[in-house]
Design goal:
Oligomer: single chain
Distance between the termini: 45 Å
Strand content: 5-15%
Largest sheet: 9 strands, mixed
Number of strands: 12
Helix content: 40-55%
Length: about 375
């Protein structure tokens, strides 16, 4: 990032003074649309400007209304390669600006596309099944291949898998954006250090919280509203009925965003959340990326049967059945067991043989394709 404009400098000062409190910032800027005037009054300890606000805000405004404070913060931003996007900036995410009480400023590391064509948030539980991990990664990759941008919270589990899938697509412009529930310079969870750096290199990490803010529990509902606010649709992969995912879904519904869900087995606890959303009519069931993209007018991405020439003369009956199913599209080992009504050991034997023959390949999450 380069040097901040004077307007951006003053907005940054006010954001720190108000500790990022949205309602207070809205009231301050409504009363003093010329932030330069407010800065000068705070610098002079003018009681007119400092009265009527929370005592903490008034104190911070007076203590930080000086050029050295602004220089210090700007130097930190430059040193740490962090950009700031006030709500009036043309680079501020256009969809996010539409929500109720949007963040007045965002801190960004990486490259953020302010108007992505199809931003889709993929959310779910932190301890998903292997199937859920594979589905999230698959959808993250396939949606990105078709030009979508994946929004996540960089949490462990589904969020991480979706972001990894998006990053598999080489050459994609801003394949994924991570919205944090802490400062943009704080990596949470610690296990995602590598992912954090990869997202910054290829996409962007975003936060409305002041740099250095720890991942406090109360931050995450606020983070979730930004995730849905930046997206045109939210995809739920696996989730409990009541969870952080349900908070994101509620925000999405309030914001007029589309909600999609991956249906799951009724006996699986990890499928209760998405199944219930579908039952209540709050989410559309989807089975492939094309189901989502079709909602946005991308009709040419309708699922198609793949035409593949394979010599099956030397294959066993089981191997032929597996190939016939994979001709219709990639499937997981569990799905093949259910479709073929065969035990896992038998199906796995056929899959292994076909892999050795080079006819099929294994994808992340125990999915297989020709």
């Amino acid at each position: 990032m380069g040097e901040l404009s004077r307007k951006d400098q003053l907005w940054l000062w006010l954001y720190y003074a108000a500790a990022g409190q949205i309602l207070q910032l809205e009231k301050l800027t409504a009363k003093y649309p010329d932030v330069e005037e407010l800065f000068a009054m705070a610098k002079a300890r003018d009681k007119t400007a400092l009265s009527g606000w929370d005592s903490g805000i008034a104190k911070r405004m007076a203590e930080t209304a000086n050029e050295s404070f602004i220089d210090e913060k700007q130097e930190w931003l430059l040193k740490n390669h962090v950009s700031v996007l006030p709500i009036y900036s043309t680079e501020y995410p256009s969809l996010l600006r539409e929500i109720h009480h949007p963040p007045q400023l965002l801190f960004v590391k990486g490259r953020l596309n302010p108007k992505p064509e199809i931003p889709i948030a993929i959310v779910g539980m932190r301890r998903p099944t292997a199937y859920g991990e594979g589905v999230a990664r698959h959808f993250g990759k396939e949606l990105t291949q078709k030009g979508a941008s994946i929004i996540s919270g960089m949490a462990a589990g589904i969020d991480t898998c979706a972001a990894l899938g998006a990053l598999e697509v080489e050459g994609a412009l801003c394949p994924t954006v991570a919205v944090l529930g802490c400062g943009v310079d704080v990596i949470y969870p610690n296990s995602n250090v590598r992912l954090y750096n990869e997202i910054i290199e290829r996409g962007a990490v975003v936060s409305e919280f002041l740099p250095g803010t720890r991942p406090y529990r109360e931050n995450f509902p606020m983070r979730n509203r930004v995730m849905s606010g930046m997206s045109r649709g939210v995809l739920v992969v696996e989730a409990a009925e009541r969870s952080g995912t349900s908070i994101t879904v509620n925000y999405a519904l309030d914001q007029g965003r589309d909600v999609f869900a991956i249906p799951g087995r009724i006996t699986d606890g990890s499928s209760v959340g998405p199944n219930r959303l579908i039952q209540k009519g709050e989410a559309k069931p989807v089975f492939c990326a094309a189901d989502i993209l079709f909602e946005y007018g991308v009709e040419e991405l309708q699922p198609q049967v793949r035409v593949v020439e394979i010599d099956t003369s030397t294959l066993t009956q089981l191997e032929k059945k597996i190939v016939e199913e994979l001709l219709l599209g990639e499937k997981s080992a569990d799905e093949l067991c259910e479709i073929l009504s065969l035990p896992a050991a038998q199906v796995n034997s056929g899959l292994t043989s076909l892999q050795f023959s080079g006819i099929i390949k294994q994808l992340p999450g125990r999915f297989f394709s020709l």
